[in-house]
Design brief:
By secondary structure, the chain is α+β, with helices and mostly antiparallel strands. It has 3 domains: 133 residues, no CATH class; 61 residues, SH3 type barrels; 135 residues, 2-Layer Sandwich (Alpha-Beta Plaits). It has 16 helices and 8 strands.
Length: 425
């Protein structure tokens, strides 16, 4: 068929006063261009058949994986092989006088086929990754980095095969020759290699998951993990900015993962307020009667007073002086009040630790620390609870005869100087 086609065009060109050699070259060139056009038409026919049959059946099926294959163009890319097959099969018949050109065309077809296979394998990897993301395990074990490594391997191997084809070399010999460039390759692919190792350790040790809240001050990251790739981890900070962290940095450097807090159902509050040591004193009967009116500690005070009275009676303590025996202090009662207040608060986690304690006194007073867990983990609600608790603490401190310690301000010093200048009577 191609011989008759070439002969027809050869006679046409001869009739147009072309020389025999020119007519042969033009007729065979025309046949080859016609072959390329035929290959293009065959591609569209193959794509139309796939779309009307295979893809149409897939879209009507209930299986989800085949829809992913269609989305990533795995099915459609099979049609890319049709034109290469046609050109490879009939190129020699269209260019019988040009053996070198036919060899070049065949080599080009081989390169094209390798490239199509690379695209097809890449699409399959993407499909497997997308399907994995539909599984529940993907939330705890992200594999985007592994998918990127597989694609990188596909394109590196494919690139080596293309180079070997163009150079007419065995790929094994080519790889051996590239061994001398290993130092350069290690430098070029340093970040992907480190990222792959880091991603492997992150996944195997379950250090980071998508959606985890992590804090890494070194990189200015404090927010939720959006994406874990081969070379980077993307974090959306609470101010909606995006911080990109090298994957390996999460293994080599220190960071905080707040997942344990989120899974526990509580978020820790650990703050203290300093009290003036000069305001601490023993409780007299008037103070005790006042404190007994506080509902949260009325039962505590009654039980504590009975315990102290019994102890003092057993040991014959002279109670005319407050220093003798055991006595309650306004600071101790205040500490008991804070503990009961936190236990009664509806937003304080009852199943987790609730602690009120004194820290080491210093020149800045006595630090009274509260330690508890909030039921609210969201940032705004968590901060609101802390503020509400300390608003109450600051307001109730004077009711126990205590004072908050703070360094004197300019206004305070001015007031003290005015009082000193006033004459004493």
């Amino acid at each position: 068929m191609f011989n008759e086609f070439i002969q027809l065009f050869r006679e046409l060109f001869l009739s147009l006063n072309f020389s025999p050699s020119q007519a042969s070259m033009l007729s065979e060139g025309t046949a080859f261009v016609s072959l390329l056009l035929l290959a293009g038409v065959a591609y569209y026919v193959a794509w139309f058949i796939l779309k009307r049959t295979v893809i149409s059946l897939i879209q009507r099926s209930d299986n989800h994986f085949d829809d992913i294959l269609v989305k990533n163009k795995v099915i459609s890319r099979f049609s890319y092989f049709v034109p290469s097959f046609i050109v490879s099969k009939f190129a020699a018949y269209t260019l019988p006088s040009f053996e070198n050109a036919v060899a070049s065309v065949q080599k080009t077809i081989e390169v094209y086929v390798i490239f199509v296979v690379m695209l097809l394998l890449s699409a399959i990897v993407s499909s497997l990754y997308d399907f994995y993301n539909t599984l529940d395990v993907s939330k705890n074990k992200p594999i985007k980095g592994f998918a990127q490594v597989l694609k990188l391997i596909v394109f590196v191997v494919g690139g080596l095969m293309i180079i070997a084809t163009l150079l007419n070399q065995n790929i094994g010999n080519l790889v051996i020759g590239l061994g001398t460039l290993s130092a350069v390759l290690m430098l070029v692919f340093k970040d992907p290699i480190l990222g792959f190792v880091g991603g492997l350790q992150l996944s195997l040790n379950d250090m980071v998951r998508l959606g985890d809240w992590i804090s890494m001050p070194k990189y200015g990251a404090d927010g939720d993990v959006l994406e874990i790739t081969l070379t980077t981890v993307k974090v959306q900070n609470f101010d909606k900015t995006i911080t990109t962290i090298p994957t390996y940095a999460l293994v080599s450097d220190s960071f905080t993962n707040w997942r344990g807090m989120a899974e526990s159902g509580g978020r820790r509050v650990k703050r203290h307020i300093s009290l003036d040591m000069e305001s601490v004193r023993f409780c007299d009967q008037g103070m005790l009667r006042k404190f007994e009116q506080f509902q949260l500690i009325s039962a505590y005070l009654t039980a504590k007073e009975n315990e102290i009275r019994q102890f003092n009676n057993q040991h014959g303590v002279d109670e005319t002086t407050l220093v003798n025996g055991r006595r309650q202090t306004n600071l101790g009662v205040f500490r008991a009040y804070l503990k009961e207040y936190l236990k009664a608060h509806p937003l304080v986690h009852k199943e987790m630790s609730v602690l009120v304690r004194q820290l080491q006194p210093s020149e800045k007073g006595i630090p009274m620390e509260v330690y508890f867990f909030s039921r609210k983990q969201a940032w705004a609600e968590y901060e609101d609870l802390q503020s509400d608790v300390f608003d109450h603490i600051l307001a109730v401190i004077p009711e126990f005869g205590l004072r908050v310690f703070q360094n004197p301000s300019g206004a305070g010093l001015e007031k003290a100087l005015v009082q000193l200048k006033q004459p004493t009577s």
